[in-house]
Amino acid sequence: MLLWENMKLALTAIRVNKMRSFLTMLGMIIGISSVIAIVSIGDTMRSMFANEYENIGLGRVVCYVMKFDGYYYYSEPFTADQVEKIVEAFSDEIEYISAGEGGTVTGINGRKNYQIVTTGVRGGYDKVQKVDIISGRMIDDRDYEGKKNNIVLEEATAKELFGTADVTGKTLKLKYTPAANSGDVIDDFNIVGVYRNSQSVLMKLLGGTDNSRGLAYLPESILTDIQTNGMFNIDMFVSENAPTTFEQQFVNYVARITNAEPKDVRYSSAKEEMSMIDNMMGTLSMAVGAIAAISLIVGGIGIMNIMLVSVTERTREIGIRKALGARTGDVLTQFLIESAVISLVGGIIGASLGAGVVIAGGMVLGVEVVVKPSVMLLAFAFSALVGIFFGLYPARKAAKSDPIKALRYE
Fold it and tell me: Where is 294: in which H helix or E strand?
């Protein structure tokens, strides 16, 4: 009951001095809102990166060989036989493997020419990587094994060349320079499917893709004749059931068949990259949040200052309360509660403002933001603790005042 009476006294004191109370809270409002906003933005970015890597595939691994010839490092390309040996050696652990980096060709439809960035795939690519086929089908094993001139166009590429995305079954001429570099070649390719490139919000924020070029999938078996870059990467998806020793076994095997040292084989997994980025984002968010939290100290000093003024203004009130039987602890509790209420109200306003700004920004950008309730509760509790800590000295000063002197105070 006494606690409730002290709460009412604290709220009454805040209402009597509205402007002064608001200015006192302002430091807490700015500090808490900054911390909430920064931590929430950091959590949102971590969530976006996690979703991006899940879309790519956490089991995705890129492997390449970098050799040193005594002067500089150079990348050693894989041969088709080496890739097939890897497929046979790790058939249980590897769900999908590809060695086609892709290349750039020119798509020709009548008088319309358009640069297309191609990606070589094998059958089953759409089982490990999301491909939003809107008509037709994806490249399959028959296309790969038969080296068929089939192509799957991206929707925007089809519209650029044909004026419509309804192009499944049509023929597209591709102009390219073969790996033998014997001059330009123009071949007819059957369009067996069209897919939609659903770009994530993160990729849009990071700059998106180059809209001056189209996108397409081709069978990897014919892409090796079209592109001149060579098969420098092995792009594969490793099963979740692969043993923990898989990476070392794979690296050793690749080193053996390519006549390289294990240290020359670079093994980069999406899971490791995601973990690295997540740790970096978490550390950055905490560091920036800690810097923003400095303003909470400024807010706490403001609370201490105004509470000292309040103690001085209410010296006579304190004397009357103590003369009527109020104990030292009662007066101490009253002023501590008052400072805690000022700080807590500022914390509530600040947390609501910070979360509101982040949510509003997410709505504008079309991003699903992450505002953790635990962070909000921690902000409320911390703001109350700041009020109690910085209100302790003024409260002790009020509680220890001499009631006789207080009654004589004018």
Answer: helix 294-313
Listed in sequence order, the residues at least 6 apart from 18 whose beta carbon sits closer than 8 Å to its beta carbon are none
Q: Per-residue pLDDT tens for 248-274?
A: 999 999 999 988 888 888 888 888 887
CA dist 400 and 342 (Å) reads 22
What is the phi/psi pair of residue 353, to 5°?
A: -65, -45
Rg value, the chain, Cα: 34
Describe the crossing of helices 246-257 and 80-89 by its angle, rounded to 10 degrees: 150
pLDDT tens for 365-387 read: 777 888 888 878 877 777 777 77
pLDDT of residue 12: 74
* Token code pair at residue 93: 């652990």
- Distance (Å, rounded) from C-alpha 103 to C-alpha 87? 23
Neighbours of 251 (CB within 10 A): 18
Confidence of residue 8 (pLDDT cuts 50, 70, 90): confident
Q: What is the largest CA-CA distance in the chain?
A: 108
Beta strand 112-121 pairing with 214-219? parallel
- Cα 141–142–143 angle (5° rounding)? 90
Write the burial class of residue 103 (CB in 10 Å: 0-12 exposed, 13-18 middle, 19+ buried): buried
State the burial class of residue 379 (Cβ atoms within 10 Å of its Cβ: 0-12, 13-18, 19+).
buried
Q: How far apart are CA 202 and CA 97, in angstroms?
A: 26
- Tell if the pTM clears 0.70, that is, is over it: no
